[in-house]
């Protein structure tokens, strides 16, 4: 490459695109290096559906209001307080201005999807999903003169003192280098490197499925951490959800998520329940189930529902296993039939008054005298046919990442790196210590992508 680029953005998803667009609008000459081939561009962003947005009144597709304090309380609940509150509030406050910015840059929204349990007020859904958002941003970036190289894998950033002096990458079979004025790293976590996952989690990680792109292998992250760039987060913490056990090893995407847990019982391979399926509304609790399933024998769980619950959740991409009796269902799912029948009978006996059942909000319809309890949506499983799904741990992205400040700037042990910024999943651990809140990854990527692009351009100029 002979063009004198001001800024190199590493990665091709939402955060990278927000950074590139913002920098280009500030007059910088920008190059995106995207590891994936063009049809697979966009990282995990192409699998998303929405982003979580603060607002003081109706905004775009969002109804009513969603305040900073309520948003923060929701985040603190799922993270158990393990979050940087200053950066969290920055992301939350800035999210309100992001929605009109997104619309100005080609993103279109639609009313919230049904079956996702109370998101119309908190989350703005993309018309056409994440792939449509990614394509809109690439069109906008192209119009601003941003160049993109696909299948361009960054292998090393040369760090000298307080600055990055060289970006090494491979493209079309050749090793190449650039020396831009500013660098933005937006290349995701390390989840697609299952050997790295296994080093963190142990052998159980080999049974995990990777929901998103197979190209997020943490190469740039490892390279920078090895050179002493400040890190944040625990390598065993990640956005992990329970997904259909029939999903592919990589890239199954959001459609492999199962939203039936609140209306079910979930058992392990011994047909024993192990957690409260009705603890909270699904957007605040779906992301704990990946870790729960990971802790079970062989890292697998099984959802059991009956006919009256089948239409209460988003349809699954693979049809459920169906049987006329619980014993037949157990046989089809490889579960001990006697144990499953006993577990269901004990659950049914613990269910009480059903008159307050309400599928889209906490209804307090709970079990009595059962361990673990089911604290909402506890209805007896009695109406044939019966249905089941297998569950596996599906990792979306990892939280070990680059530590950043409010300007999205990275640091070494003793000083800021003057021309290095990070955005998106590769720095999300700066805010997310554990747990996950639906749509918050896109909020982090959008907010910090824009900040990184602005700061990188200011430095380059």
From TrEMBL:
Its cofactor is FAD. The keyword Flavoprotein applies. It comes from the Bacteria. Keywords: FAD, Flavoprotein, Oxidoreductase. Pfam families: FAD_binding_2. InterPro entries: CobZ, FAD-dep_OxRdtase_2_FAD-bd, FAD-oxidoreductase_2, FAD/NAD-bd_sf, Succ_DH/fumarate_Rdtase_cat_sf. Residues 6-433 form the FAD-dependent oxidoreductase 2 FAD-binding domain. This is FAD-dependent oxidoreductase 2 FAD-binding domain-containing protein.
């Amino acid at each position: 490459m002979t063009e004198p680029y001001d800024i190199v953005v590493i990665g091709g998803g939402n955060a990278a695109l927000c950074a590139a667009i913002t920098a280009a609008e500030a007059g910088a000459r920008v190059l995106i290096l995207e590891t994936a081939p063009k049809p697979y561009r966009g990282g995990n962003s192409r699998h998303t559906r929405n982003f979580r947005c603060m607002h003081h009144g109706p905004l775009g597709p969002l109804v009513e209001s969603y305040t900073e304090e309520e948003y923060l309380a929701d985040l603190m609940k799922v993270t158990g307080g393990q979050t940087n509150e200053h950066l969290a509030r920055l992301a939350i406050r800035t999210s309100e201005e992001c929605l009109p910015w997104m619309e100005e840059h080609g993103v279109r929204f639609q009313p919230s999807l049904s079956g996702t349990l109370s998101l119309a007020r908190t989350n703005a859904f993309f018309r056409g999903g994440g792939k449509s958002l990614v394509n809109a941003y690439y069109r906008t970036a192209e119009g601003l003169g941003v160049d993109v190289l696909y299948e361009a894998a960054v292998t090393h950033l040369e760090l000298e003192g307080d600055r990055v002096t060289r970006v090494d990458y491979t493209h079309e079979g050749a090793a190449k280098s650039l020396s831009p004025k500013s660098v933005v790293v937006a290349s995701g976590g390390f989840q697609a490197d299952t050997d790295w996952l296994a080093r963190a989690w142990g052998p159980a990680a080999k049974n995990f499925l990777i929901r998103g792109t197979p190209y997020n292998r943490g190469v740039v992250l490892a390279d920078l951490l090895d050179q002493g760039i400040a890190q944040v987060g625990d390598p065993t913490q990640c956005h992990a959800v329970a997904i259909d056990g029939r999903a592919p090893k990589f890239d199954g995407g959001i459609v492999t998520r199962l939203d039936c847990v609140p209306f079910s019982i979930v058992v392990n391979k011994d047909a024993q329940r192990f957690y409260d399926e009705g603890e909270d509304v699904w957007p605040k609790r779906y992301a704990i189930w990946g870790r729960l399933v990971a802790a079970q024998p062989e890292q697998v769980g099984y959802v059991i529902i009956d006919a009256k619950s089948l239409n209460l959740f988003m349809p699954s991409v693979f049809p459920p296993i169906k049987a006329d009796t619980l014993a037949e269902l157990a046989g089809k799912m490889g579960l001990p039939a006697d144990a499953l029948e006993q577990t269901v009978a004990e659950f049914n006996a613990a269910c009480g008054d059903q008159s307050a059942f309400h599928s889209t909000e906490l209804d307090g319809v709970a079990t009595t005298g059962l361990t673990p309890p089911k604290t909402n949506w506890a209805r007896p499983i009695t109406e044939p046919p019966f249905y089941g799904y297998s569950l596996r741990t599906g990792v979306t992205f990892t939280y070990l990442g680059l530590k950043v400040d409010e300007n999205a700037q990275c640091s070494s042990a003793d000083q800021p790196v003057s021309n290095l910024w990070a955005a998106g999943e590769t720095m999300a651990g700066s805010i997310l210590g554990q747990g996950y809140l639906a749509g918050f990854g896109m909020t982090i990527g959008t907010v910090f992508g824009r900040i990184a692009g602005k700061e990188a351009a200011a430095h380059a100029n």
